[in-house]
Write a structure and sequence with these properties.
Elements lengths: L2 H18 L34 E7 L12 E6 L4 E6 L3 E9 L2 E9 L6 H16 L2 E5 L2 E5 L5 E7 L1
Antiparallel strand pairs: 1-2, 1-8, 2-3, 3-4, 4-5, 6-7, 7-8
């Protein structure tokens, strides 16, 4: 065996021993016993959607005979800077104030401009304003905002625009 081959064999055996040798744990780096590590950690890939500063497009008014037949353009935006609500009924601009405490919400001073709307538009506008005045709570699930009345029933449904 050549000197080169012998040297290579010696270095290889030292590396194998070095890689498999265990040493006593360093006491400076022992884990704390009072820290509880959960058995399973679940990370969500879903984007967090907030009530405020998000444009919410109206998709249903549940008190309507045609609950899912919504005219384009109706939306809400809850502005966190000044606790003001703005949006559109699908025909007229919408404005008001709001106050949120957890899942409870109080909408106030709901008003709209008074431009002529086609027949369906004026009905949708009236139903939306009524729903906003009756709203007492809110919930976001699967990218939808649900406005709820005092019984916890859904009265308006929005999705992220």
């Amino acid at each position: 065996m050549s000197k080169k081959a012998l040297l290579l064999a010696l270095v290889s055996s030292v590396l194998v021993v070095a890689c498999t040798t265990t040493s006593a744990p360093d006491p400076r780096f022992t884990p704390k016993t009072d820290v509880v590590i959960p058995a399973q950690v679940v990370l969500s890939t879903q984007k967090v959607i907030n009530l405020e500063d998000t444009k919410w497009q109206l998709v249903a008014l549940t008190r309507s005979v045609n609950a899912n037949q919504i005219q384009d353009g109706a939306f809400l935006n809850f502005q966190s800077v000044n606790s003001r609500l703005n949006g559109s009924t699908g025909c007229n601009r919408l404005m008001g104030g709001y106050r949120v405490q957890g899942e409870l919400i109080k909408l106030s001073e709901i008003a709209s401009t008074k431009i002529f709307c086609p027949r369906g538009g004026i009905i949708q506008e009236a139903l939306l304003i009524e729903a906003l005045n009756d709203t007492r709570a809110w919930r976001i699930e699967a990218g939808h905002l649900y406005l709820l009345d005092e019984k916890g029933e859904k009265i308006a449904v929005f999705e992220v625009h």
